[in-house]
Amino acid sequence: SQKIEQNSEALNIQEGKTATLTCNYTNYSPAYLQWYRQDPGRGPVFLLLIRENEKEKRKERLKVTFDTTLKQSLFHITASQPADSATYLCALDQGGKLIFGQGTELSVKP
Amino acid sequence: ETGVTQTPRHLVMGMTNKKSLKCEQHLGHNAMYWYKQSAKKPLELMFVYSLEERVENNSVPSRFSPECPNSSHLFLHLHTLQPEDSALYLCASSQVYGGSYSTDTQYFGPGTRLTVL
Fold first, then answer.
1. Which residue of A has its CA nearest to B43?
2. Separation in Å, CA of A18 to nearest CA in chain B
3. Can you tell me the distance from the alpha carbon of B12 to that of B20, in angstroms, rounded to the nearest whole number?
4. Using CA atoms, how far apart are residues B19 and B115, in angstroms rounded to an integer?
């Protein structure tokens, strides 16, 4: 069956450290993968898109990797700040639809 | 107003009530979506409209009825809901549906927090 799995446990890190979030999938062949940020009680906000033929994408302190052999994407936030605390969702393309993971809650402590 | 707006932001209704959720997008997009988000669960796609035509209906119970009168507005009509329908209902839009990579980025509204008593 098709499945998308993100870190099931909340991630707690110290300010200034690098946060690494994982998105694994099975039985999908996505043309691209997206990452969104969601704050409590709010809608998700798009952060980054990476295509199947791209290994890495960067935007300011954010970096995403995409390994179609491992069927995995890693999302990194460098020099993390308390304002980065939120839930981060990965989403796979499936024929035009986006299929979302359940999200990973990140907490950055000062 | 910019982006995607949703009203009301909070709604409490009884199981016998009829209510509607409204979504409006000011981005000039051609595709609009309804999602349901329950606690600790992934977003569940409910409906997709592309150029005002419904193109996806993911086995949603008939007590949820969508309406898309034009490309900027989307409604979700609710009747005889169950307590398990309590959730955050999110509306989103994208430039096109099923288009090239960058145009499938979705822009979400703030959601309607629905409680069914």
1. A100
2. 24
3. 12
4. 12
> What's the gap in Å between the CA of B49 and the closest CA on chain A?
12
How far away is chain B from the Cα of A109, in angstroms, using its nearest Cα? 22
Distances (CA, A) of B107 to A26, A97, B111: 26, 14, 12
User: A98: which chain B residues are within 8 Å (Cβ-Cβ)?
Assistant: 45, 104, 106
Can you name the residues that pair with A85 across neighbouring β-strands?
Answer: none
* A77 touches B19 (CB < 8 A): no
* β-bridge partners, B93: B32, B107
For residue B111, the SS3 value is coil
> Which residue in the set B40, B108, B113 is minimally distant from A44, CB to CB?
B108
Instruction: Return the number of CB contacts < 8 Å for A and B.
Output: 55
Amino acid at residue number B16 = T
Give the distance, in angstroms, between the CA of residue A106 and the centroid of all CA atoms in the same chain.
11
Query: What is the spatial distance between Cα B53 and Cα B71, in angstroms, rounded to a whole number?
Result: 9
pLDDT tens-place values along chain A, 110 residues long: 778 999 878 999 999 999 999 999 998 888 889 999 999 989 999 999 999 899 899 999 999 999 999 999 999 999 999 999 999 999 998 877 889 999 999 999 99
In angstroms, the CA A109 to CA A12 distance is 7
Residue type, position A61, single letter? R
Pairing of strands B112-116, B87-94: antiparallel
